[in-house]
Amino acid sequence: MLINGYDEGPVVAGEELMALPGFWAACLMWMCESDDEHDVPLPELFGVDGADADAAAEVLMNEEAWLAFRIPFADDHTAVVIHANHPDDAGIEYFVTHADWGRHGYLATVDGHYAGPGLAWRELIHIAHTPDPAAPGVQNPHARLLLLLPTLGDQDTPAEAVDVVAEALLWARVPAGEARRLAGRMLDHPLFAAAQWVMPAPEKPIGSDEIFDGILVCGAHHSPRCGIRLGQGITREQNDKLARALGTWPA
Question: Domain coordinates of the chain in residue numbers?
Protein backbone atom coordinates (compact mmCIF):
# COMPACT_ATOMS: atom_id res chain seq x y z
CA MET A 1 0.00 0.00 0.00
CA LEU A 2 1.56 3.27 -1.12
CA ILE A 3 -0.40 5.48 1.31
CA ASN A 4 -1.10 3.97 4.72
CA GLY A 5 -4.86 3.69 5.25
CA TYR A 6 -5.78 4.70 1.70
CA ASP A 7 -7.15 1.88 -0.44
CA GLU A 8 -9.84 3.62 -2.48
CA GLY A 9 -8.22 3.18 -5.88
CA PRO A 10 -5.15 2.17 -7.92
CA VAL A 11 -2.74 4.66 -6.31
CA VAL A 12 0.80 4.94 -7.68
CA ALA A 13 3.70 7.25 -6.89
CA GLY A 14 3.60 10.30 -9.14
CA GLU A 15 6.73 12.21 -8.16
CA GLU A 16 8.84 11.12 -11.14
CA LEU A 17 6.13 12.30 -13.55
CA MET A 18 6.60 15.88 -12.38
CA ALA A 19 9.40 16.00 -14.97
CA LEU A 20 6.88 15.81 -17.84
CA PRO A 21 7.18 19.03 -19.94
CA GLY A 22 3.53 19.96 -19.53
CA PHE A 23 3.09 18.84 -15.93
CA TRP A 24 2.75 22.21 -14.19
CA ALA A 25 0.46 23.60 -16.85
CA ALA A 26 -1.83 20.57 -16.56
CA CYS A 27 -1.70 20.71 -12.79
CA LEU A 28 -2.25 24.43 -12.20
CA MET A 29 -3.85 26.00 -15.27
CA TRP A 30 -7.35 25.80 -13.77
CA MET A 31 -6.20 28.08 -10.96
CA CYS A 32 -5.51 30.87 -13.46
CA GLU A 33 -9.06 31.19 -14.71
CA SER A 34 -10.72 34.60 -14.48
CA ASP A 35 -14.23 35.98 -14.85
CA ASP A 36 -13.34 37.29 -18.30
CA GLU A 37 -14.48 34.67 -20.81
CA HIS A 38 -12.02 36.09 -23.33
CA ASP A 39 -9.09 35.75 -20.93
CA VAL A 40 -8.55 31.99 -21.07
CA PRO A 41 -5.36 30.56 -19.54
CA LEU A 42 -3.26 28.78 -22.15
CA PRO A 43 -0.40 26.28 -21.80
CA GLU A 44 1.87 28.78 -23.54
CA LEU A 45 1.63 31.02 -20.48
CA PHE A 46 3.46 28.24 -18.65
CA GLY A 47 6.11 28.02 -21.34
CA VAL A 48 4.85 24.76 -22.89
CA ASP A 49 2.82 23.89 -25.94
CA GLY A 50 -0.68 22.48 -25.90
CA ALA A 51 0.38 18.98 -26.90
CA ASP A 52 2.69 18.65 -23.89
CA ALA A 53 0.01 19.98 -21.55
CA ASP A 54 -2.56 17.58 -23.00
CA ALA A 55 -0.19 14.63 -22.63
CA ALA A 56 0.48 15.50 -18.97
CA ALA A 57 -3.25 15.99 -18.31
CA GLU A 58 -3.96 12.57 -19.75
CA VAL A 59 -1.51 11.04 -17.28
CA LEU A 60 -2.97 13.00 -14.37
CA MET A 61 -6.49 11.84 -15.26
CA ASN A 62 -5.67 8.18 -15.84
CA GLU A 63 -8.43 6.08 -14.22
CA GLU A 64 -6.11 3.06 -14.05
CA ALA A 65 -3.30 4.78 -12.15
CA TRP A 66 -4.16 7.48 -9.60
CA LEU A 67 -1.08 9.62 -9.13
CA ALA A 68 -0.09 10.41 -5.54
CA PHE A 69 2.38 13.14 -4.64
CA ARG A 70 3.86 12.74 -1.18
CA ILE A 71 5.18 15.81 0.64
CA PRO A 72 6.99 14.67 3.80
CA PHE A 73 7.55 17.24 6.52
CA ALA A 74 8.60 17.41 10.16
CA ASP A 75 8.15 14.59 12.70
CA ASP A 76 7.25 11.97 10.08
CA HIS A 77 4.11 13.73 8.82
CA THR A 78 3.29 13.63 5.12
CA ALA A 79 0.95 15.84 3.13
CA VAL A 80 -0.53 13.85 0.26
CA VAL A 81 -2.07 14.98 -3.03
CA ILE A 82 -3.99 12.24 -4.85
CA HIS A 83 -5.63 12.56 -8.25
CA ALA A 84 -8.58 10.33 -7.39
CA ASN A 85 -9.86 9.50 -10.86
CA HIS A 86 -13.19 7.87 -10.08
CA PRO A 87 -14.86 7.20 -13.46
CA ASP A 88 -17.92 9.33 -12.64
CA ASP A 89 -16.50 11.75 -10.08
CA ALA A 90 -12.83 12.51 -10.60
CA GLY A 91 -11.17 14.94 -8.23
CA ILE A 92 -8.09 15.78 -6.22
CA GLU A 93 -7.79 14.91 -2.54
CA TYR A 94 -5.45 16.61 -0.09
CA PHE A 95 -4.73 15.25 3.38
CA VAL A 96 -2.08 14.79 6.06
CA THR A 97 -1.08 11.35 7.26
CA HIS A 98 1.17 9.87 9.93
CA ALA A 99 2.04 6.25 10.60
CA ASP A 100 0.82 6.51 14.21
CA TRP A 101 -2.60 8.00 13.38
CA GLY A 102 -5.79 6.02 13.11
CA ARG A 103 -7.16 8.25 10.35
CA HIS A 104 -6.02 10.98 8.00
CA GLY A 105 -6.31 14.69 8.64
CA TYR A 106 -8.25 15.98 5.64
CA LEU A 107 -7.29 19.32 4.12
CA ALA A 108 -9.35 19.80 0.97
CA THR A 109 -11.06 18.16 -1.96
CA VAL A 110 -11.29 19.58 -5.46
CA ASP A 111 -14.18 17.94 -7.30
CA GLY A 112 -17.88 18.43 -7.91
CA HIS A 113 -18.46 18.58 -4.16
CA TYR A 114 -15.43 20.61 -3.20
CA ALA A 115 -14.31 21.15 0.38
CA GLY A 116 -11.75 23.69 1.54
CA PRO A 117 -9.66 25.68 2.12
CA GLY A 118 -7.29 23.37 3.90
CA LEU A 119 -4.21 25.41 4.76
CA ALA A 120 -3.42 28.86 6.09
CA TRP A 121 -0.58 30.72 4.38
CA ARG A 122 1.84 30.27 7.28
CA GLU A 123 1.16 26.53 7.36
CA LEU A 124 1.67 26.24 3.61
CA ILE A 125 4.99 28.07 3.73
CA HIS A 126 6.20 26.12 6.75
CA ILE A 127 5.41 22.75 5.18
CA ALA A 128 7.00 23.80 1.88
CA HIS A 129 10.25 24.67 3.60
CA THR A 130 10.55 21.76 6.04
CA PRO A 131 11.19 18.73 3.83
CA ASP A 132 12.22 15.37 5.24
CA PRO A 133 14.98 13.98 3.01
CA ALA A 134 14.76 10.60 4.75
CA ALA A 135 11.19 10.03 3.57
CA PRO A 136 10.00 9.32 0.00
CA GLY A 137 8.33 12.12 -1.88
CA VAL A 138 8.77 15.68 -3.13
CA GLN A 139 11.64 17.53 -1.47
CA ASN A 140 12.01 20.71 -3.52
CA PRO A 141 10.38 23.64 -1.65
CA HIS A 142 9.05 25.24 -4.86
CA ALA A 143 7.40 22.02 -6.02
CA ARG A 144 5.96 21.42 -2.56
CA LEU A 145 4.48 24.91 -2.51
CA LEU A 146 2.89 24.57 -5.95
CA LEU A 147 1.41 21.15 -5.25
CA LEU A 148 -0.30 22.37 -2.07
CA LEU A 149 -1.19 25.85 -3.30
CA PRO A 150 -4.76 24.83 -4.34
CA THR A 151 -5.59 24.20 -0.67
CA LEU A 152 -4.83 27.78 0.33
CA GLY A 153 -7.54 30.20 1.41
CA ASP A 154 -6.40 32.78 3.93
CA GLN A 155 -7.51 36.37 4.36
CA ASP A 156 -4.18 37.13 6.04
CA THR A 157 -2.06 36.02 3.08
CA PRO A 158 0.64 38.73 2.89
CA ALA A 159 1.25 40.94 -0.14
CA GLU A 160 4.67 39.35 -0.67
CA ALA A 161 2.99 36.00 -1.33
CA VAL A 162 2.79 36.97 -5.00
CA ASP A 163 6.57 37.14 -5.16
CA VAL A 164 6.93 33.82 -3.32
CA VAL A 165 4.59 32.02 -5.71
CA ALA A 166 6.15 33.76 -8.72
CA GLU A 167 9.57 32.49 -7.65
CA ALA A 168 8.18 28.96 -7.51
CA LEU A 169 6.69 29.38 -10.98
CA LEU A 170 10.00 30.60 -12.34
CA TRP A 171 11.55 27.43 -10.92
CA ALA A 172 8.86 25.51 -12.83
CA ARG A 173 10.07 27.27 -16.01
CA VAL A 174 7.14 29.61 -16.39
CA PRO A 175 8.37 32.55 -18.55
CA ALA A 176 9.61 35.49 -16.51
CA GLY A 177 7.10 37.80 -18.16
CA GLU A 178 4.16 35.68 -16.98
CA ALA A 179 5.23 34.36 -13.56
CA ARG A 180 4.07 37.23 -11.38
CA ARG A 181 0.77 37.67 -13.22
CA LEU A 182 -0.02 33.96 -12.96
CA ALA A 183 0.97 33.99 -9.29
CA GLY A 184 -1.56 36.74 -8.63
CA ARG A 185 -4.28 34.75 -10.34
CA MET A 186 -3.48 31.59 -8.41
CA LEU A 187 -3.65 33.41 -5.11
CA ASP A 188 -7.09 34.64 -6.13
CA HIS A 189 -8.24 31.36 -7.63
CA PRO A 190 -11.96 30.78 -8.01
CA LEU A 191 -12.55 27.79 -5.74
CA PHE A 192 -11.72 28.76 -2.16
CA ALA A 193 -12.37 32.27 -0.89
CA ALA A 194 -10.01 33.88 1.59
CA ALA A 195 -10.97 32.58 5.02
CA GLN A 196 -10.18 33.54 8.58
CA TRP A 197 -7.88 31.21 10.50
CA VAL A 198 -7.86 31.36 14.29
CA MET A 199 -6.16 29.64 17.17
CA PRO A 200 -8.97 28.29 19.35
CA ALA A 201 -8.80 28.26 23.12
CA PRO A 202 -7.16 25.15 24.61
CA GLU A 203 -9.69 22.36 25.08
CA LYS A 204 -10.09 18.92 26.59
CA PRO A 205 -11.30 16.39 24.01
CA ILE A 206 -14.10 14.09 25.13
CA GLY A 207 -12.69 11.27 27.22
CA SER A 208 -9.37 13.00 27.87
CA ASP A 209 -8.03 14.92 30.84
CA GLU A 210 -5.30 16.49 28.73
CA ILE A 211 -5.49 19.96 27.19
CA PHE A 212 -4.95 20.17 23.43
CA ASP A 213 -3.92 23.40 21.72
CA GLY A 214 -1.70 24.87 19.02
CA ILE A 215 -3.57 23.91 15.82
CA LEU A 216 -5.49 26.45 13.74
CA VAL A 217 -9.12 26.06 12.71
CA CYS A 218 -10.78 27.62 9.66
CA GLY A 219 -13.75 29.98 9.60
CA ALA A 220 -15.06 28.86 6.18
CA HIS A 221 -18.06 26.58 6.63
CA HIS A 222 -17.13 24.37 3.65
CA SER A 223 -13.63 23.65 4.99
CA PRO A 224 -12.85 20.23 6.53
CA ARG A 225 -11.12 22.30 9.22
CA CYS A 226 -14.10 24.50 10.05
CA GLY A 227 -14.14 24.55 13.84
CA ILE A 228 -12.28 21.22 13.85
CA ARG A 229 -8.64 20.58 14.60
CA LEU A 230 -6.73 18.92 11.76
CA GLY A 231 -5.69 15.88 13.78
CA GLN A 232 -8.75 14.04 15.08
CA GLY A 233 -8.47 11.08 17.42
CA ILE A 234 -4.80 11.73 18.16
CA THR A 235 -3.03 11.88 21.51
CA ARG A 236 -1.73 15.01 23.20
CA GLU A 237 1.81 14.11 22.18
CA GLN A 238 0.73 13.61 18.57
CA ASN A 239 -1.19 16.89 18.67
CA ASP A 240 1.89 18.78 19.85
CA LYS A 241 4.07 17.18 17.17
CA LEU A 242 1.56 18.14 14.49
CA ALA A 243 1.30 21.72 15.78
CA ARG A 244 5.08 22.08 15.67
CA ALA A 245 5.23 20.47 12.22
CA LEU A 246 2.67 22.97 10.94
CA GLY A 247 4.69 25.85 12.38
CA THR A 248 1.81 27.16 14.51
CA TRP A 249 2.91 26.16 18.02
CA PRO A 250 4.51 27.25 20.20
CA ALA A 251 3.33 30.67 18.98
Answer: 11-246
